[in-house]
Write a structure and sequence with these properties.
4% of the residues lie in helices and 48% in strands. The chain has 351 residues and is mostly beta strands.
């Protein structure tokens, strides 16, 4: 595996270090990348380790510190970190147009393909006409699913931002860390199951009937609209709330369980109160007769609040869950354990 990189950066300080900036821009190209690639079962092996091609990474990292107040007894420091990275697969092994990185579940898997992001999500999609309107099964009123899979998401975030505020008064300090992840797509079995089983308020309107906006598809020409006297026919088949979120599957589906994969992929933007810490340095007068250099106590709360605005409102889903540990698979959640809110107490003694 080989990597070429051009990196430019600077460290700047202003106003007696009241403002400090660390800026880095990079352009990194890697070739002969090593990865575990899924192989056809007919080969007698599930996967192999090989050199599969190249990838380009371009991005910036900005570390900015501001100290608006820096007094003898009271101080305030703001520390922000911004990172943005764009990666694109530039090439694959000769004669290979697309590589499946891992076999996850039918209808959704991560892939490598030149010109597309690393590990992009490829899955099933609903059929549409040339104007982008959904094509509806005339018999069931459900959306027709295309036979061919397509790109349904990019798991790589647009950028990440973290801001930490630290207030200190004499021996007491309060630190509050906020962060956000903008963009990146996530396929979620948990959210899909919550909607399909009707266990959140997102599906509370049970008595209403629905008509999916779109046009009837031609049963004799999959992927094409049904034409009557040369005109498309608007869908007017009524379905229940249960059918909207739990269809029978097969060649057609709706928006929940058994739907095309594209309806189970969400924008994973999330805002989070990552950590709050309240600390106190015990005055030395309390332990001056002891061979101790310092004592401090602190209370910490982590993952105290989050908001994922592009997921169903009442799912309370946290896009930061992980189904695959430390692997290259991103953007796929398979009923992972939910994230936790944690509290801690710390006592530190220095000798």
């Amino acid at each position: 595996e080989f990597t070429k990189e051009l990196e430019l950066g600077t460290q700047l300080s202003f106003l007696s270090r009241r403002i400090e900036l660390d800026f880095t821009w990079y352009d990194r190209t890697s070739t002969n990348l090593i990865a575990i690639i899924t192989t056809p079962p007919s080969s007698g092996y599930l996967s192999k380790v090989t050199n599969f091609g190249g990838i380009s990474n371009k991005g910036v990292e900005i570390d900015l510190i501001g100290r608006p107040i820096r007094g003898k007894d009271f101080s305030w420091e703001v520390h922000g970190i911004f990172t943005k990275n764009k990666n694109i697969v530039t090439e694959l092994t000769d004669g290979v147009d697309r590589i499946q990185m891992a076999g996850i579940v039918a209808g959704i898997n991560p892939f490598l393909e030149p010109g597309l992001p690393f590990g992009y999500l490829r899955g099933t999609v609903s059929a549409r006409d040339e104007e982008g309107n959904l094509l509806i099964d005339p018999v069931t009123g459900w959306i027709i699913t295309k036979d061919e899979e397509e790109m349904v998401g990019d798991p790589n975030p647009d950028f990440k931002l973290g801001i930490n505020n630290t207030l200190t008064y004499k021996g007491v300090s309060l630190s509050v860390l906020w962060d956000m992840t903008r963009g990146g797509d996530l396929y979620s079995v948990t959210v899909n199951s919550l909607l399909g089983r009707g266990v959140t308020n997102d599906t509370r309107d049970r008595k209403t009937s629905w008509i999916i906006p779109g046009f009837y598809g031609d049963p004799n020409a999959p992927g094409s609209p049904l034409l009557v006297n040369g005109k498309k026919v608007p869908n007017h088949t009524v379905i229940t709330t249960n059918d909207v979120f739990f269809s029978a599957g097969g060649p057609s589906g709706s928006f929940g369980i058994n739907s095309a994969t594209e309806w189970q992929v969400y924008d994973a933007t999330v805002y989070r109160l990552r950590e709050v810490t309240l600390a106190y340095d015990i005055p030395k007068s309390v332990y001056r007769k002891l061979p101790i250099a310092g004592i401090s106590v602190s209370l910490t709360g982590r993952n105290l609040w989050h908001e994922a605005p592009n997921f169903p409102r009442y799912s309370n889903f946290d896009p930061e869950v992980n189904s695959f540990g430390s692997t290259s698979t991103q953007g796929i959640e398979l009923s992972a354990a939910p994230t936790t809110r944690r509290f801690g107490f710390n006592l530190q003694v220095k000798f």
